[in-house]
Amino acid sequence: MDIQRALSLLSQRIDKAREELRIVEEQLLFQMDVLEEAKTRMLVAETPLADREFRVARDDHERLVAERDRVTKQIAELQLEQDRLLDRMLAMPPTS
Question: Per the domain annotation, does 10 fall within a domain?
Answer without folding.
Answer: no
